[in-house]
């Protein structure tokens, strides 16, 4: 009889623990019922590559790129729905190819004036290029985003900040390709655009400014040097953008995502590892992690989410003819990668 009572007590205790666990779990999932989740990010947060209705290729996914939807199986959609955020007030501000530069242009008139100076015409040209695909595939989208972004941030209960890959790796890879196009086509377009947006013709006041306007950046950097410079610029713009976010909404909970690892395991050909992109990617993951967690003036007001082990699609070898055509798709996480990110974000809420 004593043994039965002891067994009964153990079972009752176990049942109580299970019930308590369910209550705690349910309470956690209800914490954000009816509240607003806002996501500020690039094509990863936008859900690029996850459209189930078209083939999984760069061109088809690109032509059907999302414009602020909570794409099925993307980590923003998974986080929103698993943790009870409102489907009516939650907003995905993420856009394909956007960097901190583009969001600062939308949020900070002083930054827009700076980038429209003639000596910054190359950066303006690159920024316009980054914004072009999203705008051309949905005319008026950027203008609508500019009108709604501040209000969305003001009303956010939780904001996920998911930028950096385009600021650093994409910019550095594209820079030597973009420079000759800028020198042929970009100068006139940049000046014309800045004249329209700023309503004045800016002047060039020094030989260095003239040279930067004519030629673009005055350096002959190799990729590692460009990545290092782009990383430092990202840190400055990251802080500037966070400053604007907290000025608009001092009480918002901000989660900052690190950099994913699409180039891990990249090969030149079967059996031969690609030594440069993969190494630079690993360095960027570490540097961004350390800055967000320890060095940023806002590190005590944000919560870092580790995604440095989340891969992209499996790349073709560098020497494969399909490497470049499928490059844009392959740098993005798969559904499984998005599920991992959503789990990491959920653990930090």
Mean of residue pLDDT?
A: 86
Major sheet characteristics: 5 strands, parallel
What's the shape?
Answer: globular
Strand order of the largest sheet: 2-1-3-4-7
Q: Which structural class fits the helix and strand makeup?
A: alpha/beta
Report the count of strand segments.
7
What is the rounded Rg?
Answer: 23 Å
Give the end-to-end Cα distance, rounded to a whole number of Å. 47 Å
| Share of helix, binned | 55-70%
The fraction of residues assigned to DSSP E strands is 5-15%
Number of helices: 14
Short recap of the structure:
This protein is of the alpha/beta class and about 350 residues long. It has 14 helices and 7 strands.
Description:
The chain has 349 residues and is α/β, with parallel strands linked by helices. The protein has helices at residues 2-30, 43-46, 58-63, 75-82, 100-107, 109-115, 121-137, 141-154, 165-198, 207-215, 223-248, 277-295, 327-330, 335-348, and strands spanning 37-41, 91-92, 158-162, 253-257, 267-269, 272-273, 302-305. It has a five-stranded parallel sheet with strand order 2-1-3-4-7. It has a two-stranded antiparallel sheet with strand order 5-6. The termini are far apart. Mean pLDDT is 86; it is low at 1-29.
Q: What brief labels describe this structure?
A:
alpha/beta, 14 helices
């Amino acid at each position: 009889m004593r043994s039965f009572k002891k067994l009964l007590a153990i079972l009752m205790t176990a049942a109580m623990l299970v019930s308590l666990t369910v209550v705690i779990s349910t309470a956690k999932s209800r914490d954000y019922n009816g509240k607003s989740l806002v996501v500020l990010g690039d094509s990863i947060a936008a859900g690029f590559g996850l459209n189930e209705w078209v083939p999984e290729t760069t061109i088809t996914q690109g032509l059907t790129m999302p414009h602020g939807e909570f794409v099925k199986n993307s980590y923003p959609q998974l986080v929103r729905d698993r943790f009870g955020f409102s489907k009516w007030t939650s907003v995905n501000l993420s856009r394909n190819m956007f960097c901190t530069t583009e969001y600062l242009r939308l949020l900070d008139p002083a930054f827009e004036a700076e980038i429209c100076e003639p000596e910054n015409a190359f950066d303006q040209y690159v920024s316009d290029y980054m914004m072009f695909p999203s705008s051309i595939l949905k005319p008026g989208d950027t203008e609508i985003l500019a009108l709604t972004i501040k209000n969305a941030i003001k009303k956010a209960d939780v904001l996920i900040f998911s930028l950096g890959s385009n600021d650093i790796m994409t910019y550095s890879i594209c820079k030597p390709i973009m420079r000759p196009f800028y020198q042929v086509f970009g100068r006139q377009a940049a000046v014309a655009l800045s004249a329209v947006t700023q309503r004045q013709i800016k002047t060039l006041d020094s030989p260095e400014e003239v040279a930067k306007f004519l030629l673009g950046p005055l350096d002959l950097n190799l990729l590692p040097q460009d990545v290092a410079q782009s990383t430092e610029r990202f840190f400055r713009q990251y802080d500037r953008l966070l400053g604007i976010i907290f000025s608009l909404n001092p009480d918002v909970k901000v989660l900052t995502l690190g950099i994913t690892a699409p180039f891990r395991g990249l090969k030149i050909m079967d059996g031969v590892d690609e030594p440069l992109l993969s190494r630079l990617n690993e360095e960027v993951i570490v540097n961004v992690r350390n800055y967000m967690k320890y060095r940023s003036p806002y590190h005590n007001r944000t919560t870092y989410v580790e995604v440095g082990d989340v891969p992209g699609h499996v790349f073709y070898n560098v020497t494969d003819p399909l490497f470049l055509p499928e490059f844009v798709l392959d740098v993005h996480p798969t559904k499984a990668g998005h599920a991992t990110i959503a789990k990491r974000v959920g653990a930090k809420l």
